[in-house]
Design goal:
The structure is a single chain. This protein is α/β, with parallel strands linked by helices. The protein has a single domain, classed as SGNH hydrolase (Rossmann fold, 3-Layer(aba) Sandwich). 41% of the residues lie in helices and 12% in strands. The strands form two sheets. The chain has a four-stranded parallel sheet with strand order 1-2-3-5. Helix 3 packs parallel to helix 4. The longest helix is centred in the first third of the chain and has 22 residues. 38% of the residues are buried.
């Protein structure tokens, strides 16, 4: 009997801890891979499950769209962290306005820690992208003080399913928050 009670108490304490973690505002923003990152992080989530400008994530979008969406978002000093998931749809273009995105995120979320998730390649228009190009792209984030999550979504056939790499990324995000 005592084992059952202590097991139930453990479950209750775990749920309370997860509830506390959800109170922190840690938002994932970006493109179509955002929902998969969300599913695999305990501490971070999308602003809204429906993609669009007000949610700061949408399928098929690149950095210019994300900058515009963030510019239209209200200043939110109560947000703890922003996790940026962008680069894939633009082909990791080194001419992308990464500094514009980061400065806009800092203005709208002045107290937020900023992280970036490295996108996916090896499929569609990104079939010829190399790890070297991806590294150079995310170095732009690093040089602006953004914490780049170590594990990229990576070279995959299709990033639009709950691949095992997303659980690794989710755990890394949770450890950084």
């Amino acid at each position: 009997m005592m084992g059952i009670i202590s097991e139930n108490i453990g479950d209750i304490l775990n749920k309370i801890e997860q509830g506390k973690q959800k109170i922190s505002k840690n938002y994932i923003i970006g493109d179509s891979q955002t929902p998969f990152i969300d599913r695999n992080s305990v501490k971070a989530s999308r602003i809204n499950e429906k993609g669009g400008e007000e949610s700061l994530w949408k399928s098929g979008m690149g950095i210019s769209w994300l900058i515009g969406a963030v510019q239209n978002y209200p200043i939110s000093p109560d947000v703890n962290s922003i996790i940026i998931n962008i680069g894939t749809n633009g082909g990791f273009n080194l001419k992308d306005d990464v500094s514009g995105l980061v400065s806009t995120v800092k203005k709208k979320f002045p107290n937020a820690k900023i992280l970036a998730v490295q996108g996916s390649w090896g499929w569609g228009n990104n079939s010829k992208i190399t790890q070297e190009k991806v590294d150079k792209y995310y170095d732009k984030f690093r040089n602006l003080g953004v914490i780049v999550v170590g594990t990229p979504i990576g070279k995959v056939k299709d990033p639009h399913s709950n691949l095992p790499v997303y659980s690794t990324i989710g755990a890394e995000i949770d450890s950084l928050l």
